[in-house]
Amino acid sequence: MNFNLKIFFIAFILSLPFWWGLNIFQKNLENFLVLQELEQYPKIITAQVSKPILNLDKSLKPLRNWSVDEIKINAKSAISIFFLEGEKDQILFKKNSDSKLPIASITKLVSASVVSENYDLNLPITISEEAVAQDSDSGQLKTGEVFQAKELLYPLLIESSNDAAYAFAEVIGAQNFVDLMNLEAKKIGMENTHFVNSSGIDPITKNIGINYSTAEDLTKLAKYLLQKPKILQILSQKEYDLYSIDGLSHHKLSSTNELLGKNHQIIGGKTGWTPQAQGCLLLILKAPGQNQGYLVNIILGSEDRFGEMEKLTDWINTAYKW
């Protein structure tokens, strides 16, 4: 092999990474330019073609709309993610999303999951005196009343009843129930989460500990709950007529989630508030427009959980091109 031929082959091999990189750049540039054209002239483009010009990478959307300024959220922690089955999650906003914070009654989502997986939902559960004595409760359950487990899930999640949470735990023993909650969190992949009770109430004394999690961990929980239609159906209810096991009407439950019915994107969610946790809110929403997929928005440690959640949701809808 003569000298010139050797030089040619060496130059050819060295140039391969350049041409490979140029090809990827060209493909991404073509995708980007088509997206831009579709956004500026959607009617013209769609009129000219009856099928997609390119197999556009789904990960290119949503695109950040930089004409919309960044948002300021005053909560201690917040996150918004977009996810689509089979695709990598996209973080649209985050603030201290890995901070371990008390989550108050968002706890009850894990309690409900434990019940749905480990209890006979036709099981009669009697409300004890200890259950009724739980602090910071908005429920109207009374000592000696009996409900089927599937019915007791409604006050647990709609009214955020601490009585119901305690009653569920009493069936197998409070500590056994909490152990199941921590196993459930581990199964979901919530590595920075720990539970000490079934309701999320603040501890009476400092040495007891408190239920905590992170906004990032709670997105994993929200995605997991999408596989549990019964729980999602309850979380979507603004009101519900509760019945005792004898078929008698008990009372009408009203959701603690003030945003239900105010935004058509909302599938469901869970509130939480205690003096230590302050306002907490988890929402599962449909992605904007005609997009498949979901949003999970979480606010922790807020003095205005509903106002800040509305602000975050509105910003996500406008700060990204869907």
Automatic annotation (TrEMBL):
Alphabetical list of InterPro entries matching this protein: Beta-lactam/transpept-like, Peptidase_S11, Peptidase_S11_N
Binding site for substrate: K270
Biological process annotations from GO: cell wall organization; peptidoglycan biosynthetic process; proteolysis; regulation of cell shape
Domain of life: Bacteria
Domain Peptidase S11 D-alanyl-D-alanine carboxypeptidase A N-terminal residues, every copy: 69-282
TM segment ranges: 7-25
Assigned keywords, A-Z: Cell shape, Cell wall biogenesis/degradation, Hydrolase, Membrane, Peptidoglycan synthesis, Signal, Transmembrane, Transmembrane helix
GO molecular function: serine-type D-Ala-D-Ala carboxypeptidase activity
Catalytic residue list: S105 (acyl-ester intermediate), K108 (proton acceptor), S160
Family: Belongs to the peptidase S11 family.
Protein name as catalogued: Peptidase S11 D-alanyl-D-alanine carboxypeptidase A N-terminal domain-containing protein
Organism: Candidatus Nealsonbacteria bacterium CG23_combo_of_CG06-09_8_20_14_all_38_19
Lineage of origin: Bacteria, Candidatus Nealsoniibacteriota
